[in-house]
Amino acid sequence: MRKLFMPLLVVATAMFAYAPFMIDQAAYESSMGLVSKIFYFHAPSGMVMLLSAVVCGIASALYLWRRNPGADRLAMASAELTVLYGLIVIATGPLWARKAWGIWWDWDARLTMSFVGWLIAISYLFVRKYGGPGSDKLGAALAVFGTANVPFIYLSVNFWRTLHPKTSVVPTLPPLIRGPFWFSALALFLMYLLLLTARLHLERQRAALDALYLAEED
Amino acid sequence: MSDFDEVRLLDVSRHFGRRRALSHVSLTARAGDILGLLGPNGAGKSTIIGALATLVAPTSGEIHYGGQRARALGDGLRRHIGLLAHELHLYPELTARQNLEFFAQLYGVHSGPAIDTALERAALADRGHEEVQGFSRGMRQRLALERSLLHHPRLVLFDEPFTGLDDHAVGIVAGRLRELAASGAIVIIATHDLDLADGLVTRVALIREGKLLSDEPAAAGLRARYRSVMGRA
Amino acid sequence: MFTRTALLVLKKDFAIEVRSREILYTTLLFALSCVLIFSIAFVKEGEPLLDAAAGILWIAVEFAGTLALGKTFERERYSETLRALLLAPAPRAAIYVGKMLGVVVLLAVAEALLVPLVALLFHAPLLAQPLLLMALVAAGTIGFSSVGTLFAAMLVRARSRDVMLPILLYPMTVPVMIAGVRGTSALMQSPADVPSAIMWIGLLASMDVVFMTIALWTFEPLMTE
């Protein structure tokens, strides 16, 4: 990944620069107007957020049972990115909702679910920061439970109520919207990979520094 | 069989982030030994005790119980380990007898006579029905000592067993430890109290800042030896 | 060995509770205070809001349960008896099961008082389907306690555990709460919406299985320092 970092960074930057033109060219949705363009940002961020949360859960399980320190660093980095992408989702959602539904927030299935998932990711970071010694394992257990919880949160809020556009919206997009949508999704995913790499690099450096301190003591 | 007659730490390290609680400690204790882990507070003595008790997992290195690792020996290994820590592992709301009964059953020891003997040994035979929270530190300590030995452990781990005891009680505890060692137990005591260790321990491991500075048979003049080793390092 | 150890731990917790009754009384009193506070929010012009009873019941259970969890493990922390339990020559997960059963029993006692009380105070037909309600409450309580016991146990050594427990536990038990509240209000409709209630009970039961399984797996690695 380290060798690919610079080229990917260039590609991602170019994609981000070009994305607004592409979104501008995309078919204009008459009922929603300009606000509908948030979709290109909002939905892919939600997808990346979910991906990042699952990565965090799997890495945490590996850390808990295999004691692999690399998995711990991956879990930590993914949790931070889950919070970051979650913030994008939660900040852009209401802007669209205000126009579409006339309200800023609604306790519908997906909103509730993103909110709960985001809260769990934040509580993970909270534990890592304030848990004291042993917080790495506390966090790992939290992430494993959080990930196992995702289907239940999904089911329970879905049975509860649904107002949000269905998952089936994305596969049935008209071609003029589909292109720009997947372009944006790819750009945001690339950004995720780059941030993750950078964050992992930082954690590795920290671990190396810790090892040096330990070696110095010996 | 998960019994053993020697425990061995092989290059054991344990660190918490940047802080090394234990650094490459290798140490062996055999049946009949009373090994004293001596060193100032925070030297890593309790971490060694915790690791031997299977409560602390070493970051690197291995601990062998009679040539086998804890994982290979399974949960049954803990039947042969007795631990008395500074915190006494007693339920204050329960009576002395209830405490002993609970732990005896936990270890699958046939209670009854074992409990009576333990209460007698702790000099609490007539106070067995009283709640532990009404006991003095010394009484609790005696009870905790007997509690940790209920199941006749092979490996006896004591972390600061003498705090809060008067001279008479210290004499009793020391006598009990000698008795255990003579009957084939491996006794390991962590303490910072040199006066109490002197004359009791048969081997001395001097520890500071997570490092083993010296591992030698106990000899006269422990205090002078301690000072010279600690001062030199 | 596993079952025996779990039952011993449960019996021991029971013996302590019989002597002090502290956790039972604090839990009950706290649950009552919750009900009182909610009555302020959910009663309008002397009439309780529709469906409020279901929410009040479950929130009171969740809050009181958190308190009971914290207290139970404070008891094991006081003299570091949790470490002594972990030294028992049995699978360590047995300790988890024993502690969890204790919390479930305690909450069951609290619920036996809470359900009729909420039904009475908020004019709610909670007892219209007693068996289904019992199944729902039992499944929900087990789900809450299975996550809660693991988290409370792992927080024993952490700093600021009192604050951490609710912060970690509440988001994690959101599906349990939704299923509990929705299932209860389905049962309170007239006539009761039995198929929905059974669906929620089924969802809760599958959560119980998944949560317990993960907890049994994670307990041992979590408890080794």
How would you describe this protein?
The complex is a heterotrimer of chains A (218), B (233) and C (225). Chain A has one domain (41-217). Chain A has 6 helices and no strands. Chain A has helices at 2-25, 39-66, 69-100, 109-130, 135-160, 175-217. In chain A, helix 1 (2-25) packs antiparallel against helix 6 and helix 2 packs across helix 5. The longest helix of chain A is centred in the C-terminal third of the chain and has 43 residues, at 175-217. The model of chain A has no long low-confidence stretch (mean pLDDT 83). Chain B is of the alpha/beta class and 233 residues long. Helix content of chain B is 33%, strand content 27%. Chain B has 8 helices and 10 strands. Chain C is an all-alpha fold and 225 residues long. Chain C has one domain. Chain C contains 9 helices and 2 strands. A two-stranded antiparallel ribbon of chain C has the order 1-2. Chains A and C meet through helix 4 and helix 5 of A and helix 6, helix 7, helix 8 and helix 9 of C.
Compact description:
Chain A is mostly helical and 218 residues long. Chain A has helices spanning 2-25, 39-66, 69-100, 109-130, 135-160, 175-217. The relative contact order of chain B is 0.20.
